[in-house]
Amino acid sequence: MGLQGIGAAVPRKEDRRFTTGAGRYTDDMVVQGMRHAAFVRSPHAHATIKGIDTSAAEGMPGVVGVLTGAQLKEDGIGNLICGWAISSKDGSPMNMGEWSPLAVGKVRYVGDAVVVVVAETRAQARDAAEAVMIDYEELPVVVDAVEALKDGAPQVHENAPGNLIYDWEIGERDATDAAIAGAAHVTKMKIRNNRLVPNAMEPRAALAKYDKAEDHYTLWTTSQNPHVARLVLSAFYNVAPENKLRVIAPDVGGGFGSKIYIYPEEIVCLWASKRTGVPVKWVADRTESFLTDAHGRDHVTEVEMAFDAENRILGLKVDTIANLGAYMSLFSSAVPTYLYATLLSGQYVIPAIHANVRTVYTNTAPVDAYRGAGRPEATYLLERLMETAARELGVSPAELRRKNFIREFPYQTPVIMCYDAGDYEASLDAAMKAADWDGFPARKAEAASRGKLRGIGMSCYIEACGIAPSAAVGALGAGVGLWESAEVRVNAVGTVEVLTGSHSHGQGHETTFAQLVSDRFSIPLDQVNIVHGDTDKVQMGMGTYGSRSGAVGMSAIAKALDKVETKAKKIAAHLLEADEGDIVIEDGHCKVAGTDKQVPWFQVALAAYTAHNLPDGMEPGLKEGAFYDPSNFTFPAGCYICEVEVDPETGKTEVIQFVASDDFGNIINPLIVEGQVHGGIAQGIGQALLEDTAYDASGQLLTASYMDYAMPRAADLPSFQVSNTVTPCPSNPLGIKGCGEAGAIGSPPALINAVTDAIGVRDITMPASPRRVWETLNAKA
Amino acid sequence: MYETNYHRPSTVEEAVALLSANPDAKPLAGGQTLIPTMKQRLAAPSDLVDLRHIEALRGIKLEGRRIIIGAATTHAEVAGSEALQSACPGLASLAAHIGDPHVRHMGTLGGSVANNDPAADYPSAMLALDATIHTSTRDIKADDYFTGLFETALDEGEIIVAVSFEAPEKAAYAKFANPASLYAMAGVFVARHGAGVRVAVTGAGSDGVFRQGDMEAALSANWSPAALDSVTVSADDLMDDLHASAAYRASLIKTMAKRAVAAA
Ligand SMILES: Cc1cc2nc3c(=O)[nH]c(=O)nc-3n(C[C@H](O)[C@H](O)[C@H](O)COP(=O)(O)OP(=O)(O)OC[C@H]3O[C@@H](n4cnc5c(N)ncnc54)[C@H](O)[C@@H]3O)c2cc1C
Hints:
By secondary structure, chain A is of the alpha+beta class. Chain A starts with 14 loop residues before the first helix and ends with a helix.
């Protein structure tokens, strides 16, 4: 490793831009003649639209257009789709209801877009939006997924009878039932995974420009995957063919999954820019973000885990109901199935697993992937069960886990996944040591002397990243392949541009990706530029989510680098009259190993472009591209231990210590990895202790602002103790597994295990808010 | 935000004249409540009369035992005032825990007292300190001033100029913050003045800030946290919402009151 190469803790190149306010976000983009959009949204969770009167709005100052769903249909714009087909266990396809970008006939959740107003200023657009008169007839509402499945529940979509989208299963039902029937001990729980609002710092935004002369559209938007946006906008929404549509995702201020999907607003802005003849910009305000960004989680699960007399796990049976909200968002169907149930083996040998998942429509915001996506739900289930089982069986939580760890790899689970490498005990040992697990009783006693209830909890998580082999996900119903692309362009003076299909919205790609190049060609980081987020520059890519940019995106770059390196070495060998196999690249030079013969890197690049003296038959230039399709998921895993103190008088929980021991395989930049883990744990603490998304019975979002939605603040977090163990990932050339989501996946159960330990109860529903903890303590007393 | 006209008077008289000339005008202080409300289009004043540049509304004065605080004094100024830190540290500490640094450097005591948010901190201090609210037209005792949720005795166009109170013998504030907003979910200000003790509760009452008579009696007899053990706080007339039930608030009131007494 060099000072800036693989493994170096290089500070992020992009941070100067971000911390000095010089980032360029979608709302910073200004084009000639630009106008502003405001959406008229449904104030009702469920209603029939009896009439829309736009006449008053049309006459308001500055108004350029007031457009409805009927006009959108006239122009042939398509409905939004879910891109992952899941079938029910009886073989029937999922029941996908219609989602028109502007509602036609019916609205199905508070925030559903009905009309768009385009005006000269944002304020004028909003004024006119208030003047649009919509006549609604309210319909009965259902917000809870369990209620939605009951007989007589209000029907959200005509073609999803009983609000059931699909009734899916995985694993062996009979074997699992038999395991439970023959078990020495069965631990049963009913677990709710609370709904979360993503809350990216930058709200969603879009600027759409239609160029009449070229019959061509440009869309600047807050996307984690601009190429997928272009693909879906052209292939399904009928906005424009791909060659007539350029999508640019400039700096994006956080996504956490919520900016993977295509939303109505981008489609409408594109369409409206042609229909009204002016470029159209829309920027969500925070209320719109709360109401309409795809939410996360929202599961209710009944689960049983069976043990033999030696405390070995025999089987796991899971019955989950997942709330997908009012419409099926782009990848919503995959989250509670292939991103969830395939991880139900955790770190353990479980001979028989069966999971049944029913997804349902309700009159709430759509639910899709949010940092971790399915894997936090699986981890929460398993790690709450392991803790509870350990208490019931009277063994220590660490011993129960040790007894059941998978120790031989590759390991084929009963739920599709084949784990390639790991050492779960190493993480557990490291975490217990760092947490001084054995010293806990003394700390508990000391806390008691101050009137505080101290508790400790652990969580041993596994997740699947890098999604994933294209053929495998295709066979499971994915509408897209999940490879990544890269192009490495060496300029004539030896500096480098890397074009990647990954997209950075906080992950630090401009630094880590450059480190790969710096390492390979022995050139300084500032001679490498990372280009991403523009469909006119990067040919194709699948974007950033599921911690895939390292394992998949960087592997594509490594593959392209291999090709460039091979060619560069050929040129150097030719210039140095040496054998290609003897060339090494170091200290900014191509050298003949073991001699003092060398040529500077930039001269090799220059030679490629002057083409005056190249090996016979070699094409000029030094530029190569690669597509990398992973051979497997990657499996980051680790152990988290946290200690909390509860104030029994107020119910307030303070996180005193949080230890993370993660195995992310090889690490490119430890500083960035640590930052990712910190952010993930903060979100996990948010989910476990603070964040809840509450709708009232009429479908109004009660937590629609920071006055009521509790985000974690710095004061809610301890100083994290983060460390790594390493088993290199055998499935990709860099040996890396991915680190973007682990913190959010592994932490909630550790927290709730600690809280329940502190207050001496079997279970508490997340978030363990002061109110809930106080009420739980009171109910106990 | 709807369009509005901005005015910057430099005297109280000018401000009052601007307000009476425009019936839909509103005073603007730190803007920490008013501006977000306008941004959400929930308020639409035709005119904003900025009070922050009126010298007479600023500053903290000590006249003997009497403390006078100008309405446009920011929370940060109250928190950082040496005079207050010695004469009434409980109030300085209250101000130091309002919102976040941005809010404390913009928000004002007068704005908070005028707004009378049922979860705001200052109203409890005003009641417990037996303060007087000095306005552009009259003096109002705190007991007569806070009249309900976001309701006060202020008339249209009347502005708060200052508040004043006798330095208490002992006083302190304990607040249990709403985990989302960090406003009070139960905040208790206790103050001992000679023979009498006043206890005021914010964040909890369904009619806004109120005095807790049983606690006042118990503490007048015995100024100690233990004196509150025998007091039963009724959950009747307490707010019940997403973050706290009335019963939970009742329990928090007692806990916060004890902690306030211990800290005083
Ligand atoms: C993020 C955040 C967190 C906060 N947390 C807390 C908290 O923990 N505790 C708490 O108590 N408060 C909190 N606040 C509110 C804050 O203290 C405000 O400063 C206060 O509510 C209003 O004061 P202001 O000076 O900003 O008034 P403005 O917002 O300018 O005005 C508020 C109202 O009072 C009127 N007004 C202002 N001054 C006068 C006057 N002199 N005479 C008559 N009428 C007047 C205005 O017309 C308006 O109706 C928070 C605010 C924010 C934004």
